[in-house]
Amino acid sequence: MQAYLLNLGVLISIYSILAITLNFIMGYAGIFSLAHAVFFGVGAYTGALVAMSLSASIFVTVPIAMVVAGVLSLALALPALRVRGEYFVAASLGLQVLAVTVFSEWKSVTGGIGGLIGIPPVDLVGYQIYRPAAFFPLSLAVLVLVLVATRLLVHSSFGRSLTAIRDSESAAESFGKNVPLIKTISVVISAALAAIAGVLYAHYLAFINVESFTLDTSVLVMAMVIIGGTGTAAGPVVGAALLLLLPGLLSYMSFLPQTQIGAIQQIIYGLGMAVLMIFRPGGLVGRSKAKARTRPKDPDTEAQAPASRPAEAAR
């Protein structure tokens, strides 16, 4: 039971990293991408190949994977220079389909459908980490680092520019913001950070193939962000935890046909997203913020407000 919980903790940490990095462009820049699994896969394949041929050190595999994913993300970022909204979603969908084809057919590099096997465990300053008991603290530490990095970016001037673009591109341009450049940089950052999750995933499983990086994965990560709460710090983590705990909970329900668990999961994902979009658009975590905004004001504050306004106007 302990091994199962540790394994689940590692996977939740990895997918939380993915959800946080997608939330960086969805929640703060208003860029909806269906290709996030592509950069997850690029990070995983790059990390695996580097570990198998050069070094399994996390200080080697992670930077190389981030650079490769960041450069390749320009294939998605460049359309962002010219299109908005649903057109960008279509462009990201096209990239996702193309990437799955490449992952499947470039057998000399990716191993095709058979994938890559025998990926060495991650090397951390000379120590090989492969057991869940040791890998979980590592994945959790990386999750915290990615979360802190994204929060620092969000609260910087760059992050304020992102939210301005999300709210109104025209208004942002009128204030002198270089909208195409800011959007491109945000996509590159998101892709590079998503590659970190791919490296951890490859080292942990010691095997990867294209089935982990399909459109289903991109939709799953987007569901994590939406259900948890876009534009929030804890929302993606909450969404990742809920959607990864769900299969385990369903498997304990003996009255459900075990062969249909996958289909039932998809139905629950879809219903959950639809219900949240209708009744709680801010997601599970964002709901508290919405309530705070609509909280009744203090009567004493209301009584003092009219008196203070003339003084402010006279300044």
TrEMBL record:
Domain of life per record: Bacteria
Membrane topology reported for the UniProt record: Multi-pass membrane protein
Keywords: Cell membrane, Membrane, Transmembrane, Transmembrane helix
Region feature (Disordered): 289-315
Keyword tRNA processing in annotation: no
Any single GO CC term annotated in Swiss-Prot or TrEMBL for this entry: plasma membrane
Amino-acid biosynthesis recorded as keyword: no
Localization, UniProt: Cell membrane
Compositionally biased spans, kind Low complexity: 302-315
Example of a GO MF term: branched-chain amino acid transmembrane transporter activity
InterPro entries: ABC_transp_permease, LivM-like
Bilayer-crossing regions: 6-25, 32-52, 58-78, 134-154, 185-207, 219-246, 266-285
Stored PANTHER family: HIGH-AFFINITY BRANCHED-CHAIN AMINO ACID TRANSPORT PROTEIN BRAE, HIGH-AFFINITY BRANCHED-CHAIN AMINO ACID TRANSPORT SYSTEM PERMEASE
Protein name: Amino acid/amide ABC transporter membrane protein 2 (HAAT family)
Organism, scientific name: Breoghania corrubedonensis
Organismal lineage: Bacteria, Pseudomonadati, Pseudomonadota, Alphaproteobacteria, Hyphomicrobiales
